[in-house]
Amino acid sequence: MAETIIRFGIIGCAEIARKVSRAIALASNATVTAIGSRSLDKATRFASANNFPPDAKIYGSYEAVLDDPDVDAVYLPLPTSLHIHWAVLAAQKKKHVLLGKPVALSAVEFDTIIEACESNGVQFMDGTMWMHHPRTAKMREFLSDKQHFGQLKSVHSCFTFGADRDFLVNDIRVKPDLDAHGALGDSGWYCIRSILWAVDYELPKTVIALRGPVFNEVGVILSCGASLSWEDGKVATFHCSFLSNLTMDVTAVGTKGTLHLHDFIIPFEEKEASFSAGSELAFNELVTGWVPLPSKHTIRTDLPQEALMVREFSRLVENIKAKGLNPEKKWPTISRKTQLLLDAVKASIERGFETVEVGN
Amino acid sequence: MAETIIRFGIIGCAEIARKVSRAIALASNATVTAIGSRSLDKATRFASANNFPPDAKIYGSYEAVLDDPDVDAVYLPLPTSLHIHWAVLAAQKKKHVLLGKPVALSAVEFDTIIEACESNGVQFMDGTMWMHHPRTAKMREFLSDKQHFGQLKSVHSCFTFGADRDFLVNDIRVKPDLDAHGALGDSGWYCIRSILWAVDYELPKTVIALRGPVFNEVGVILSCGASLSWEDGKVATFHCSFLSNLTMDVTAVGTKGTLHLHDFIIPFEEKEASFSAGSELAFNELVTGWVPLPSKHTIRTDLPQEALMVREFSRLVENIKAKGLNPEKKWPTISRKTQLLLDAVKASIERGFETVEVGN
Fold this sequence. Notes:
2 copies of one chain form a homodimer.
Chain A lengths: L5 E6 L3 H12 L3 E7 L3 H10 L7 E3 L2 H6 L5 E4 L6 H10 L3 E4 L7 H13 L4 E3 L7 H10 L8 E11 L2 H6 L11 H17 L7 E4 L4 E2 L5 E9 L5 E7 L1 E12 L2 E5 L10 E8 L15 E6 L4 H17 L8 H21 L5 E2 L3
Parallel strand pairs in A: 1-2, 1-4, 2-3, 4-5, 5-6, 7-11
Antiparallel strand pairs in A: 7-12, 8-10, 8-16, 9-10, 10-11, 12-13, 13-14, 14-15
Helix pairs in contact in A: 1-9, 4-5, 5-10, 8-10
């Protein structure tokens, strides 16, 4: 049976939409059908600059994309504060929703989005691309390997990048009315997700923000960190920032194994990505070296992770459209947990670094 | 002028003394002259197993080593609780002191040791070997390079190892009367030192222990962590444990550079050691990869780091003995700051994870 091609509408011409447009073109089960911007001119330029199919429709509004019956799914790379409006509206118009991160300003707000998706039978997925890299699946295998990794004990994640002056003045991620969570919402989202991923999405019991967050003059977080702890003794920390050199680490340590990688969100190279795995590492007899050494694992991928994300999302949409299956709940569930922890870190900062119990 | 050979006495037959005996043999300006153990038999076996010079003196007590006029310096690989007694006595007997870590049960106790060393004109150094690896100097150059590393913003350090059942029952590091600080005193010492090293020994303003420390049934720490913050906004975290696979990370992130290494205390191999340095790392135009990539720097060393430590210590002793210079204060100062932060983490844990202001 021929693959159904899922037809995407793109809402807005954000920088990140360039990468996702290419990803949609690369995914064999997806195509770009429409783009909408508040400026028709901008949408036209975007379509041309990003090699849209000649028959792609170009609209001067977001609504027009949602009203187009030829659009199956939308990609929403909008500022966080606009998510609730446009994601809910998209769902109501029966469009499947691929949403930029962070998914909302709060988990409560996100619940409205999930509710709209569920009641309209549409698939939800957030745009956390690294989840779809085959390396991620390979690392999951290692973390789940009781014999070689054992029981997870601690995770550390760090995502920082050095924003330039223009970013720190003009980017939506430093504006309280657009991406109100700043570095926590942007880079912290990935750190939190990586920690959740490592613990197989078990929510921690408590979250405490670390001292020393940095804010801009209008109160948006430019740098912060947190410590998370689980009932069973697992612990995690993360640090996220717009003010440091590009760094992208995950370290997960188990009773028997250690996982390291330094490019978890955007792999150093598109076609292959590595991680380091060490199992039952020890010192030599005189404690002057290690035996064995950790080993490097490299995973090739023909499609970049963002195209694999689009392909997976489109596959789930096809399951609904062509096979009558229900939307896959795994993705909104993961998004919600990530948002819940983001909320907890924010709350801890606001309450002067108090311990925040994580609810549901 | 011929090099003066510093004559070492070793106090006790701890496991680590094997490695340091070899280091003394390897250092051209040092030799083992004597060993003392509470058991003459044990000392005899140790001397023979570790290829001591045939004329090395073997004593059935620690005191005898201190009373030997042919001993210039002593290496004290004793349980922490015994440091104050033996280090002070050694200093009073005019022996230069190379002391295992942690240096004392508290900074207050350590001050007594420093005082004894100062008033007797003897050199003090703690046995933190990685400080003396040429890699450490090379990494210091990178961290101090304003153009390529910029201003330090955050540090994360992790040292864990999976102690076996025998260690967790019998090792001195799980005994409240011997090494009362457990994993904090043993592996946490190195984490704290690496953080201090990265910030060029500037003490943080506050220290807070992280939730989730693990204790054994007699209250000794088996796993813990802390968050440190500085007046100028620098932040650091560390995690240390006896309960996880061997992991040994330092990550230091500056405004323009990132340093990573995964074997900071004991290099993977004896003859060469590496670190990763990235400077002004960024994404490519479509954010599908990094340009430039971090680069790996490998430093060869003919002598292992513990022999370089012995050589440096012996050089300082020679400066005092042969040239009439004063003891080098850098080393006890660094030891004291490390101990001070160790005390602060301990205090924070004991006070229910309160913020501890770091004094002097």
